[in-house]
Amino acid sequence: GYDPIIPSGFVGSVLYPVKELAWNAQEGLYGAFASDATHAQLVAAHADKELIAATKLYADDPTAENKILGILHEYGDDLTTVEKAIPAVKEENPEFARQLSSELASNHLFTASKVLGSIQDAFIITNPDVVPEFLEIRNEALSSAGQAIVAAADNQTEVTETLNILANEAQETPYSGIINAEILGQVKELIGGDIEEQINQAFDQVISV
Questions:
Q1: Which of 74, 97, 158, 163 could be disulfide-bonded to 90 (CB atoms 3.0-4.6 Å)?
Q2: What is the pTM of this model?
Q3: What single string gives the DSSP state of each residue in the chain?
């Protein structure tokens, strides 16, 4: 069966769906009473755990496509929630907004994209019918992570610096640069129409390195 490589940042075991019910209740409580920053941080942590859960479920039962996709839909929704919260978080605490967006991008631009890409490649062989839905979720994750970086930054230079740092941190093998450039190219394609031309240029600068 598929043996997923869970990055060191994603640790712990997750029970589903009991955990998801608890997470949703916690998010609702924090959404009502906590600051935007605290709520966004909580939802981002839940997205990390949902990715673990989906990956572990695939490793245990590759035929459980519907359950896997269900978890990944929750994962994508949570990433979108965090992305949409970044402007409000930035108003409260600009430095924390940059930190949170960088963590989101580090986990879900490069790391998660590679993990999900491996599962997607397996689905192409075993059950190609679910691939379009799976690809939609993967693209949602890439888009949210990219938009979070843009929303937290003050200018093109900050976007370029952040993307360069994240790409360098994700440089695991001599071929990582090529893979990371492909991922950033996908992100630019997904969000390019929604961002300023200067920000598109920031992506181009990092892609071309």
A1: 97
A2: 0.81
A3: -------TTS-S---TTHHHHHHHHHHHHHHHHS-HHHHHHHHHHHHHHHHHHHHHHHHH-TT-HHHHHHHHHHHHHHHHHHHHHHHHHHHH-HHHHHHHHHHHHIIIIIIHHHHHHHHHHHHHHH-GGGHHHHHHHHHHHHHHHHHHHHHH-SSHHHHHHHHHHHHHHT--STTHHHHHHHHHHHHHHHHGGGS-HHHHHHHHHHHT-
